[in-house]
Design brief:
5 helices; 12 strands; about 15% helix; alpha+beta
Amino acid sequence: MVGKDHMGDCARLTIRGPVVAADASHGDSIAVNGVCLTVVDVLPGEQFSADVMGETLNRSSLRTLEVGSPVNLERAAAVNSRLGGHIVQGHVDGTGQILARTPAEGWEVVRIALPDPLARYVVEKGSITVDGISLTVSALGDDWFEVSLIPTTRELTTLGRAAVGTPVNLEVDVIAKYVERLMQRPAE
């Protein structure tokens, strides 16, 4: 990230991202650490800016970003493209914190605190999104979950280098949320 301008209860982020900015246009969606943002301006030097409202700052780790912070960037999937992972919307449900990192031969296990309001949506071998990275839950406790990072994920994402104590954005499986909502409402 190259800039963060505070504007009362919101902020404007300026981000350098050669791949995502190359074909970005005003109004496009780009996920920043898993938070879907709208491109306000495409700027010289392979940069774009996006406004972040107070609700998003309060619910995500974007509030902790500083100039120079590395971020994960992802363009929105086109409707006519292959779905290469889990269904991810870029609508952050809350934040967790990295509790532990356990290296293994060829991968690494990362344990993350699971906020109580999100726990009911997380299942072992189910999907979860951490800072925009679609991952499979490899282990689960009452107030934590684990994901296993392959070398490519460790090398290409901020999660691969994030220290214990780092806050991370969490997005739970949207299908689980819809099922819960349907079960709560009587059929008419």
